[in-house]
Amino acid sequence: YDIIIINEQVLQGLHNSYFQKSLTEVMRASGNRELWLTDSRKLQDVYTHTIHKLNNHEARELYASYHQQIGNYQQDGSQQDGKAEGNDADKETSSQKIRNIHDRDLLLWLHDHWKEPVVITRGEDGAVSYDGKTMHTVLGLHIIKSIDAVGAGDAFIAGLAMALAAGASLGEAAEVGNETAGVSVQTLYETGHPTIDEVLEIHKRGDYRYNPELARDKRLAELLPETDIEVIRSSLKGSFDHAYPAVVVFDHDGTISTLRQGWEEVMKRMMVMSIAGSAYNELSSALLEEIELKADQLISKTTGVQTLIQMYELVDLIQESGFIPRKEILSPAEYKSIYNEMLMKNVHKKAERFQSGQLSLEDVTMKGAVEFLKTLREKGVSLYLASGTDQEDVRKEAELLGYADYFNGGIYGSVGDVSRDPKQMVMKGILEKIEERPDIDAERCAVFGDGPVEIREARKHGMLAVGILSDERQRFGRNEAKRERLVLAGSDLLLPDFSCSEEFSRWIGWIS
Fold first, then answer.
1. pTM higher than 0.90, yes or no?
2. Which residues pair with 106 in a beta bridge?
3. Run of H or E residues at 308
4. Does residue 248 contact residue 448 with C-beta atoms inside 8 Å?
5. Whether 498 contacts 487, CB under 8 Å
6. What average pLDDT does this structure show over 115-124?
7. Contact 452, 486 (CB under 8 A)
8. Rg (CA), the chain
9. How far apart are alpha carbons 67 and 89 in whole angstroms?
10. How many other CB atoms are there within 10 angstroms of residue 33's CB atom?
């Protein structure tokens, strides 16, 4: 064999004391002929001379068994001597340290403990690995679909083992394991059996979760002094060397225009009514709350993608919930039409008020946005507009608000084809132009948006990714509700609006 997996998941299973002793002797006798890989809940300290794979809960549990001050603990959590050591303050301090220890610190401790390579899986946040020389962080996968975690750990260990046996480094193997688990979790109500083609596909097209600790903890945010600009990748300071970018791509709704402000509430109401159907008025408050939560989660995961893709996910939710007979479930395109009709009533009201003079341009755009577009065009920057909204609607709204002509690169929106995402199309088009023109470099291009889709596309293609924490209701200031998803998407910086564009331009190096 190239590699042998030691798997232990049940307390009263194969791994009795005789088996543990005998297997240890087999490993010792085999020398270095085979790789050994342990995936064990309670026996990592028994099979020490192997590569170790644990999840972060198991890693913390093992760390706690050696560091808690409230008694001498065995690995299974039982107390050996029944005596508590240390005062209450010591116990509390120790417990806090155990809870707060970072996964990377756990990794170093475990490697020092066993003197063997270690991989810690972190669920949706990916994994970390250390072979004694190189620490490697595996980014978590962003998955829009409903997931089922049953079997994910087994899928990870299978991918990890296969890659190690094929000669991959520990970090490379952890990447394969993470992608294999990513395929598995998308198989609902049964353990997934990922194929090589599926793993290669997720490797090629997968979306990732960046900086999960920073995303979850606002206290870690670093703001430029006297501004609301949050810097995530500080290494980019001055990186443009007093030159404006060659190309800038803008999202539309929530980044420039606020005509569609409140679309989330409209979509949520439409989704809840579509899921519940005629049973809506008879639902218990608890069940209604559960449906609303599912709608909220779907909207949060899919913000920025084409509306049609969101409706495909809605159809899946409707089928899962079971309130609507299957023969009465509409197509994604029909649900999109219902949502669009509800939303456009609000948009048309605002548009009419703008045309009549009741609303000014400042009332329907983010603060400083139009002035920023004008400045960029005057500096010779090529501008593109890319939106998940229907292309004709985007064009009409940009023309209505008077800035359509600034987008000399083009205005792109959804054309009703889920395989042709407008933001991906724009990025691909820019890259093709870059290949044709050696004077343009992807690193000299930038993307601005308040949704995760455009930010992820920017990171995939090596462009500057600027997240906009737009408060669309008041049109200025930070909207903290958008922060987590924009950080996870890979934003390099976060701006509340464009009133701070001069400070931003100076920091990034567009101006001196």
1. no
2. none
3. helix 307-321
4. yes
5. no
6. 96
7. yes
8. 26
9. 15
10. 8
